[in-house]
Design brief:
Shape: globular
Radius of gyration: 18 Å
Strand order of the largest sheet: 1-4-5-6-7-8-9
Distance between the termini: 58 Å
Structural class: alpha+beta
Number of strands: 9
Order of helices and strands: HHEEEHEEEEEE
Length: 125
């Protein structure tokens, strides 16, 4: 295979994977499964509520969320915590958290799901 053919093949592969982007904020391509990327303990770094930044409320409480590959979910903060279940839905573009003690059922829309970065949005109430 000559260089020109290899370059065209790589360009075609890149074009295809760029058009297959699942989440609005990325990634375009990952070698890890979505469940493997979600499975982590996530510390809140930024929280926007009704257009206002309320991050300090969560960072002062040391709020974290932990997702397991088997569908287990827990949250912890300085005043307590809880646990429940999570599952992908809507072609893996959303996560449903339910049965979580102390929190309502939540349908989260995934904006970004990378190994070190998990962004989502949801409607409260």
């Amino acid at each position: 295979m000559n260089t020109k053919t290899l370059l065209l093949a790589l360009l075609a592969i890149f074009s295809f994977t760029a058009s297959c982007k699942k989440y609005s904020e990325g990634p375009s391509l990952s070698l890890r499964s979505r469940a493997e990327r979600v499975a982590n303990t996530w510390k809140m770094e930024q929280v926007i509520f009704n257009g206002s930044d309320v991050t300090t409320t969560y960072t002062n409480m040391n709020y974290t969320e932990t997702y397991n590959k088997d569908g287990g979910y827990s949250y912890n903060m300085s005043i307590g915590g809880g646990s429940g279940k999570w599952a992908f839905q809507e072609n893996d573009t959303q996560i449903k958290r339910n049965g979580v003690s102390g929190q309502p059922t939540v349908d989260m829309v995934i904006l970004r799901l990378k190994e070190k970065s998990f962004w989502y949005t949801f409607i409260d109430g």
